[in-house]
Design a protein that fits this description.
The chain has a five-stranded parallel beta sheet with strand order 3-2-1-4-5, with helices on both faces. By secondary structure, it is an alpha/beta fold. It is globular and about 45 Å long. Strand 2, helix 6 and strand 3 form a beta-alpha-beta unit. The protein has one domain: Rossmann fold (3-Layer(aba) Sandwich), CATH 3.40.50. The chain is built from nine helices and five strands; from the N terminus they run ααααβαβαββαβαα. The chain binds S-adenosylmethionine (SAM). S-adenosylmethionine binds next to helix 1 and helix 5.
């Protein structure tokens, strides 16, 4: 890509991120529908209400994840913290979950939920998934639910996951994919499509 092309792409990238930020900052977190559809009654039984009402994921990937006690886990785009809480219970007190989101209001919800759940092993981090502020090889397991699809530079996110994961580390992701053949261009390029 030419230098002008790169500059234009980065401008578009900033614009997309702003659309996503505004959309998620406006989510009021007052519906249980997503959580009730994705998680079992057992998983929700001891879950703080803030996390249940703020669930915005697209799947229940943790059901398929092997999470070992003592692991350092990174939840990309933690939102209100439902997967962070489930994972932090499974790492146990010898492990921890770094809950990363670029919206302070989402991190506040995760903090509240972790405190209510009595989990001191949750560490909220405000950052962009395209520039993860963690050292190379510092994480055992990266999880993410409905977030990578929102990033304008998905390859960059995956490169960051590969960088922070230790050799033989694990990546467990639930996400959405779409191909150009599935939707008309005007829908694909619409701001609501990116944020949704
Ligand atoms: C669809 S919600 C999913 C939240 C959570 N994973 C869940 O399952 O409930 C997407 C979350 O990702 C965050 N997010 C979106 N793009 C991001 C980015 N580039 N960097 C960090 N967080 C991002 C949003 O603020 C929001 O909290």
């Amino acid at each position: 890509m030419s230098e002008t092309g790169v500059a234009r792409d980065l401008m578009r990238s900033a614009e997309i991120k702003q659309i996503v930020r505004s959309a998620y900052a406006a989510v009021d977190g007052s519906s249980e529908t997503v959580a009730r559809n994705l998680y079992s009654p057992e998983e929700l039984a001891r879950m703080p209400q803030t996390a249940i009402e703020g669930a915005l994921g697209v799947g229940n990937h943790l059901r398929h994840a092997r999470i070992d006690p003592g692991e350092t886990l990174l939840d990309l785009g933690c939102g209100a913290g439902i997967d962070t809480i489930l994972a932090a219970r499974r790492t146990g007190p010898d492990g921890r979950v770094i809950a990363l989101d670029f919206l302070p209001e989402m991190l506040e919800r995760t903090k509240t939920a972790a405190a209510e759940a009595g989990l001191p092993n949750v560490e909220p981090v405000e950052a962009d998934i395209e520039a993860i502020p963690l050292a190379d090889d510092s994480v055992d397991h990266v999880i993410s639910n409905g977030v990578i699809n929102l990033a304008p530079r998905k390859a960059r996110v995956l490169a960051e996951c590969a960088r922070v994961l230790r050799p033989d580390g694990k990546l467990t992701v639930a996400d959405l994919t779409v191909t150009e053949e599935e939707l008309p261009t005007e829908i694909l390029a619409h701001p609501a499509t990116w944020a949704g």
